[in-house]
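Comment on both lines for my students:
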Amino acid sequence: MPKPPKLPQGMPTPQQVLAFLQSSDIPAGKREIAKAFGLKGQEKIKLKALLKDMAEEGLIDGKKSAFHRMGGVPKVTTLKIVAIEDGDLIAEPDNWDPEAPGKAPRLTIREPRPKPGVKRPPALKRGDRVLARTEEAPDGLRAHVMKKLPSRTEGLMGVVEIDKAGKAWLAPVDKRVRQSTPIADRGEAEAGQLVIAERVGRSDRAGVKVIEVVGDPLAPRSFSMIAIAKHGIPHIFPDEVLEEAPLAAKLKLSDKAREDLRHLPIVAIDPADARDHDDAIWAEPDGQGGFNALVAIADVSFYVRPGSALDREARKRGNSVYFPDRVVPMLPEVLSADVCSLKEGEDRAAMACHLHINADGKVSSFRFTRALVRIAHNIAYEDAQAAIDKGNPPEYLANLWAAWKALAAARDARDPLELELPERRVVLDAEGKIAEIAIRERLDAHRVVEDFMIAANVAAAKALEAKTAPVVYRIHEPPSREKLIALRDYLATMGKKLSLGQVVTPGLFNRMLKDISDEAEKALVMEAVLRSQTQAYYGPANAGHFGLSLGSYAHFTSPIRRYSDLLVHRALVDAYKLEQPAPPGSIPATSGLSDRDRASLQQVSDAISQTERRAMEAERDTIDRYVAAWLSGRVGEVFDTRITGVQSFGFFATITGLGGDGLVPISTLGGEYFRHDEAAKALVGSDSGTVYATGDRLKLKLAEANPLTGSLKFVLPQADAGTIEPRGHRPDDRNRGPKKAGKFMVGKRGRPGNIRHQGRKK
């Protein structure tokens, strides 16, 4: 093997360090670099500073014992197999930072040759994790497997069950996991306790070991803990963050450096149970038919500086996550619930968006300042609405509603997508037990705040564009052609037309919904339209917001709970020269965008888009568990339901006015052959002609309600199994004939439970 070329001795340049790291056959840290270049004494101290600078500039990554060039991979690292291409296993770094520049590197796996007389290990497959030595080859990155690693343990949570033979099992709390796992070591865990476990062997049969006992799975607060563990949501702040937060909170506000708006009766209108208050609003007539308005937003960028421990943790979390019983905040509570929160009667730092709304409801001008505000009132939505409804509201509310009516007129002219979808609300009592589950009422007070926030978000995007400054846009692209074709085909089964030859706008969907008089039918089409929409995301390249019918849109109004908004605030600080340096100390001086922010805007946008989806899934899972717990005492009751989805294996239905999707397995529908009509989203009985289609209303009996997984199961009531309201009997549905109802054919094509069916899964 040829000797590596001799390196120049003495303090290396950054380029020489990078070249050495790339050519080294072993993991190279500070010690190895110093040895290679013959550094001693003070030169080692200079090398430490050089490596720190290179890391901050994004040239290298890793730790002092093993560096590698940024965008590359360590010499020895953990990989996850993600694909099989042309017979080769393809892997990516297991812990790739989504904020790192570019996409995750892909490596071709080279498995070790088995030694003579040694049994060949099981073949690797997609999803496996391996410890590997990496190298750069002419044809790309390669990875030589050193050993296969156990499966990850994140979310390996369940309830301990003991069978009749005394064997312990881990019952899953994830509805997607169908089977229990044997427990090899349950430690001090007892039957019925919620635990976190890890695998103890290479195969699933080896079982798991309990590493933490959470407690009673049905106790208050357990449902959110299940979601936190399942989705891997960071919920414990590192010590350095907790130490830094009080220092940041003590930063003094300068009266001279901020616009003093404490004389204005600014109000914060929030949910009654709000944990933090990001935003507050004010408006007054301008005497010419328009309004002067203000949207005051918590000035989080003043306290959370780029490069600080607070910033690193906020970037990692991406957003706060809200559960019925707790919030997992993006920032420590001393900031999120106290110093940054806009509380009544307290002086607070704010980013102020000054708006002028003309008589047509359009924002004719705007400006941004750093301000000092004192909130006049914290008001719940319901209380603000009640004050308006009584007919003699305080002047500050009357002005807000008048300004909102102007904004609403402009909004109507813009014709954004109007989908009024019900939102479930879980109310807990003082002990954390479920007091009520209901659909959240939609009030004008909600619309008032929303329209003021939208106006400020648009202004923030346009203000940054005017300065050619970086923008983290909130992007909602138009529906894809594939989704529009699927929507057209589905609407055709209902006798409705969607022409794809025209420009698809939100108004097109609005007019379609407006023409439907039957509320059940409207809800059905509304859900279909929702399914056709793309998922909103964050990004630095503007693609507009289809749903809001806006050309430029950025999230500016919730920096306490969204990192995207914090980045927008920092960009405004730079673009409009609003910097207020922190005094020398442990808190970074600048509050604008850092070089890292600017260089990695795409990567951080991708990362916070992912954390947002993670939060939405965790919140939805938790609500499902609360609903299942609420219903667990009502198993056997018959409910009014509506079919929300159809698959080849059965259909899903939700309880009217409550929510909670449950499965009706096809095996419970009778013995006849049911064909899955994917275009019509229906199951069709070949003998009886019975049709179960999305949107149908029918009575179903609750057969199972599992609070641990959040899953429900329904069956047809035995006495009146066919009580379906046929869609063919409704107005606006002339394309489908009446459905047959009554007895179901059982046993014609085999024994009950041995049901044949066809159709593809979506």
Summary: Residues 719-762 have pLDDT under 50 and may be disordered.
